[in-house]
Structures are given as C-alpha cells and as structure tokens.
Amino acid sequence: MNGHDFNRLSRRLEVLDLEEMEMETAGFVDDYPIYCIRLGGRPRGRKRVLLSGGVHGDEPAGPEAVLAFLERKPAELLRAFTFLVLPCVNPWGYVHNRRENRLGQDINRSFSESGVTEGEIARGILSGKRFDLYVDFHEDWEAAGFYMYEGRHDEQWAGPSVIRAVENVGIIDPDGEDDENDVPISRGVYQVAPSWGTGGVVPYVYHHHADHVLIFETPTAWPMTQRIAAHLAGLDTVLEWTLENPGRDV
Ligand SMILES: [Zn+2]
Predict the structure, then answer these.
(1) pLDDT tens for residues 82-100?
(2) Residues whose beta carbons lie less than 5 angstroms from ion ligand 1
(3) What is the reported pTM?
(4) Distances from the Cα of 173 to the Cαs of 166, 170, 207, 218, 230, in angstroms?
C-alpha cells in the first residue's frame, strides 16, 4: 500500500479561507509539521471542541474527514462552538502508510510517555486547555462496518444517536470488537474504559482535558467517500447532540 501525499494535505489546509481561523505549526517530527488549527477564537460561552485525525498513519480517512469538515466551511457552527483541530498527528506514518511513527512507536499506546515526539507536541498543544467534546477519527482494517467508542462520566451517551445517523451512510459493524477490553454500551458503541490507562490519545484527553470523548472507526474496505461521509455524519450528530444535552458534569 502506498503512502499518502502530505504536500497535498498541506496545500488543502493552506488554501482554506475560513473566518476566525488560525493555523500554526505546533512542532516538527522528521521534518513534517504537526499542524494545529483554531476556529472561532475565544470560546465566549461556546462549546469547545477538539478534533483529530491521523494518529495512526495508515488510517487516511481521519485526515480526510478533518479536511472535508474544514472545507465545508463550518461558519454556522461557530455560533455555538469553537474548534481546535489536529488534522494529522502522525505525519511520518501518514506519508509511509504506517500505523506507528518512524521509531515504531504507536502514538495511541504511548501518548503519555516521554520520548514520543508526536505525543510531546500534541500534549504541549493541549496543556492548560479544557474541551467539552473530543472526536478522534480512526479506521479499522478488519471491521465490516462503522463502530465507535465513547467516554462520558454521567453516562448520558450520544453513541446511539451517532449510530442511527451513520446507518444512513453504511452498515454498523455486526461483530463489534472481540477485544476483551471492550465494554459494550449499545449496538456499535463501546466504552472508553478506565482499564485503558492514559497511553491512548483519547483516554489521555478524557483524563486531563475533556468531559466527553469519542473515537469513530470506519472500515477501510469502504470507498473513501463513504468513510468520510460516515465520520462527518457522526460528527454532525454529536455536535447537535451536545447542544441538546448540556452536560451536567461539565
Ligand atoms: Zn487507529
């Protein structure tokens, strides 16, 4: 499998012409920038949303979903939300179509450790910040359909609404994960469980920075347009859900 074109990703970000958008390079890893995009400036009462893709370099639908979200020019959403967006957390992996970084480190297992450059850069970006919602876009090579993970202390789950919306785009994974660590919430929805520790990006953010976290997993077997559509249907749904269900523990 070929790698992915990081220059193309950079160009698509550079030509974005969005109101209230700031783009910066948070750091470099193997000469590739880790971009950080802010949409909407200061929260001023709006919900703070964190989005990320490309933690695993061989899951290109993540960065593609982030790019598609930004290219859709989400101006309307800025009335209710501000966004911090990390389009590609593992650029070397993205370029080489590898899950891990150049040193073979899985960022999603070693995020809280020192010596993992991508993790150190991303943790620096997040330092001192709080988010009402975090969505991390992933893919699964083995899944037949979409599934997701969710963490929320009050156990008011958005997952069932997300699943209903994504079902218009494609099937929900019938088997779910066989992993014994997976705690089911409802069909296609599993818990971001305390047993995961904080080595993963989402568990780390849940522990330190966010009240509500979700991981979306699309099947790599689907065409790219369908994977992007599933991620965005899920994101749109959870954003709407967030406005309708103001958190009790936020
Ligand atoms: Zn992944």
Answers:
(1) 999 999 999 999 999 999 9
(2) 56, 59, 138
(3) 0.96
(4) 11, 9, 28, 9, 13
> 220 CA distance to ligand 1 centroid (A)?
11
**C-alpha of residue 135 to centroid of ligand 1, in Å:** 13
The Å distance, Cα 229 to ligand 1 centre, comes to 18
CA of 59 to the centre of ligand 1 (A): 6
Q: What is the pLDDT of residue 17?
A: 85
The structural domains of the chain, ordered by start, are 6-244 (3.40.630.10)
Tell me, in angstroms, the distance from the centre of ligand 1 to residue 56's CA.
Answer: 5
Q: Are strands 47-53 and 32-39 parallel, antiparallel or unpaired?
A: unpaired
Owner of token pair 């599993």: 190
Residues 80, 17, 218, 126: is their CA dihedral positive or negative? Answer: negative
